[in-house]
Amino acid sequence: MKQWISLQAEVGNFQQKRAIYIFALKMSFAAVIMSLAIMIVMLPVLQWLDLLPLPIMEVMRFGVLLAWIIGGTVSGVLAILAGFSIHKLAVSRAEFERLSRTDGLSGLLNRRAFTEALKEAGHGASLVIFDVDRFKTINDRFGHASGDAVIVAVSQILGRVFTGEDMIARLGGEEFGAIIHGGDIDERIARIEAVKEQVANHSIAIDGGSVKITVSAGIADMGKDRKTEGVYAAADKALYLAKTLGRNRVVHERERLSQVWRRYTTEQEEEALPALMELQRYVYRM
């Protein structure tokens, strides 16, 4: 019985008030059934001892009535009171769990929750790491409140672009992460480029004026037998290359540096490509 009651009172089931009344109803029925079971067992014994003041059928009718009126009502009221206490506990626990998985400034998932989501993402998803370019300069020049405004603005843009199954998080400081589902790699890069463009075109109100920022991004794909640590490291290296190429870039782990370079540069800058190819070989040896 104790185990049955504990199952009915599972804290997670009490986040909705409707569950309280269902719990109270179950407890009332349980109390009535227990009362009737005890009465059925005890009445023949009391009759055999000649301790019943009335015929056994009369006593049974009174017993059933009292079981419903007293046992059912009292247990129902007590169950409602207990249910509301459990409801408060359930709501508090749910809020604590939410806060423990949420970044306070951006409202996105935090690093711990994102890491858990990445482990469950499985084959067919892509990891993107975004980094706000020259964020330290903004913090040093305009103050931490301005830096916070930048974080909030980038978070809002990420939330508009990545929806549905996609997961987004603030990984710490000026770094953000996204787990993208659906589409082929070109479609995913297009969505990431959309984030980059929206950020670059967005003016952020700072200290009576406004400032524009850019972001760089590195992409790596989840594989069937690929560990999450390896995926994260690959995305981080792609981000490093995006930064090295001049920031405001999106780099996929499998793209040749020449492809990225020609996507963002003019013919006059082609002469720098050999040196950057050597840089790519160095980065992927790290």
UniProtKB/TrEMBL annotation:
This is diguanylate cyclase. The chain crosses the membrane at residues 20-45, 65-86. Keywords: Membrane, Transmembrane, Transmembrane helix. The keyword Transmembrane applies. InterPro entries: Diguanylate_Cyclase (IPR050469), GGDEF_dom (IPR000160), Nucleotide_cyclase (IPR029787), Rev_trsase/Diguanyl_cyclase (IPR043128). It catalyses: 2 GTP = 3',3'-c-di-GMP + 2 diphosphate. One of its GO terms (molecular function) is diguanylate cyclase activity. Pfam families: GGDEF. The keyword Signal does not apply. CDD domains: GGDEF. Gene3D superfamilies: 3.30.70.270.
